User: Which sequence fits this backbone?
């Protein structure tokens, strides 16, 4: 067993540990072998939040260090515009960035010769939201508990639950996971154990973008 080294010339940077484990296990479900030392694999780094991920100094260092760099972060909800935040940062580093993300994930030239920068904005490069809206699409089709989890979360909000309305999907997902055979497992474990599916259109586009970044 030989997981990717922090010294790998390829790097995938995400906001936090939940994102890291979710994406690692999603890619495993699609056949990616993180332990195959015969191929260059990206080291997956959780940087501790979106503001750190979009920090110009951090990005400048990463772009000057890695031949392939990919960023995955949440679009979030208004008033945040994370794409604009990234665009401003990268243009200060002399990297031209389109006004909107590419629907199938964005690929840009990096700072090193023949290098690439990939960007995926959760959930689907077009809608506001976060990784939870991406994971929502992985709930198995026809699951009868999922509509109940959504309705129960709405009822809890109406009864004064302090959950923020913008976190409705996140709350519903955790409620749904609390009712599984192994209650309350994290998203990554739910993918590894096949409680969640893996082949939504958004997931397939993400996997295709990942391979374009790191092939």
Assistant:
């Amino acid at each position: 067993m030989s997981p990717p080294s922090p010294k790998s010339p390829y790097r995938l940077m995400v906001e936090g540990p939940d994102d890291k484990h979710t994406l690692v296990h999603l890619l495993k479900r699609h056949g990616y072998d993180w332990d195959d030392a015969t191929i260059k694999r990206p080291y997956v780094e959780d940087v501790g939040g979106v503001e750190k991920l979009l920090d110009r100094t951090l990005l400048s260092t990463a772009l000057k260090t890695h031949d392939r760099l990919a960023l995955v972060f949440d679009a979030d909800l208004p008033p945040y515009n994370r794409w604009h935040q990234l665009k401003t940062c990268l243009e200060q580093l002399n990297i031209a960035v389109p006004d909107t993300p590419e629907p199938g994930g964005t690929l840009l030239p990096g700072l090193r010769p023949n290098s690439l920068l990939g960007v995926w904005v959760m959930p689907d490069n077009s809608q506001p939201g976060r990784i939870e809206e991406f994971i929502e699409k992985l709930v198995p089709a026809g699951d009868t508990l999922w509509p109940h989890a959504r309705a129960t979360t709405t009822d809890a909000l109406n009864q004064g639950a302090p959950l923020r309305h913008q976190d409705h999907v996140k709350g519903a997902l955790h409620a749904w996971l609390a009712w599984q055979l192994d209650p309350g497992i994290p998203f990554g474990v739910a993918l590894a154990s096949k409680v969640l599916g893996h082949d939504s259109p958004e997931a397939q586009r993400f996997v295709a973008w990942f391979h374009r970044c790191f092939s």
Notes: The mean pLDDT is 96. Strands lie at 10-14, 43-46, 68-74, 106-109, 116-122. The radius of gyration is 18 Å.
